[in-house]
Amino acid sequence: MALRELLNQKPVLTRAEVTAFLQNERPRKARTHESLIAYYVRTERLVRIRRGLYAVVPPGADPATFQVDPYLVAAQSAPDATLGYHTALEFHGKAHAPFHEFYFLSATQRRPFSFRSNRFRPIVYPKALRERRKVHDATKSVCRDGVQVRVCTLERTLVDVLDRPDLAGGWEELWHSVTSIEFFDLDVVVSYALLLGNATTVAKVGFFLEQHRERLMVEDSHLGRLRKHCPRQPHYLDRDDRTGRLLSQWNLIVPEVVLDSSWSEGP
């Protein structure tokens, strides 16, 4: 009966949560915990997502086809999971296009996995954040259907997708998404960009803010802080595209399609 109470509280559960709950109710042997979980899987009250992670089947639902919230799956896939990159944009309602691949950050190297029609890809927190013990800087915790979901703020996500455009669907998807955001706390954007300690990323952020200076109310002080840390030699915005125009104030070579946002013009 105690476990049924837990099943009614959260739609996605970890084995650790089940064990902690049962131990709190009444101390049991680990084998008993496993037997209880196996029983609920066998009776189709739980569906195994991956090892140690389960979805709760709602009453009357088909265990083979019911929809499981992918954000909860990603958030529960590691004890320190944080939704990031394109997944953070989607969570905040700012992604241009929906993806079936969901990204979460963790300090531990983990394998990607698939469940139903979605793929879940773990990304290791940037080295600079791990070394400084700042992996949760510019994140927030949101309660979603009884589950605490940690997600990167829009300020951190802006910097992260500029740092890793491959995790945002490429430059066109990235640009459409981040330009739909009406407001950023620019002090947080600049401080987080500097925290990553990557000169090319700092230049990318400076370039983006300068391009949207009036709309985002960017001040000289924001750009000035970034300019002090941009590359000493020209760097490419996109390593796979060695064409473009040099922006000397950032030492950044930017493809014309990004400078002009020409992909939005269509054929």
In a few lines, what is going on in this structure?
The strands form four sheets. A four-stranded mixed beta sheet has the order 4-5-7-6. It is built from 13 helices and twelve strands. The longest helix is centred in the first third of the chain and has 13 residues.
In terms of topology, how is this protein built?
Layout: H1 2-7, E1 12-14, H2 15-25, H3 30-42, E2 46-50, E3 53-56, H4 70-75, E4 82-83, H5 85-91, E5 101-106, E6 113-115, E7 118-124, H6 127-131, E8 139-144, E9 147-152, H7 154-163, H8 171-178, H9 186-196, H10 199-211, H11 213-216, H12 220-227, E10 235-236, E11 245-247, E12 252-254, H13 256-260
Parallel strand pairs: 5-7, 10-12
Antiparallel strand pairs: 1-3, 2-3, 4-5, 6-7, 8-9, 11-12
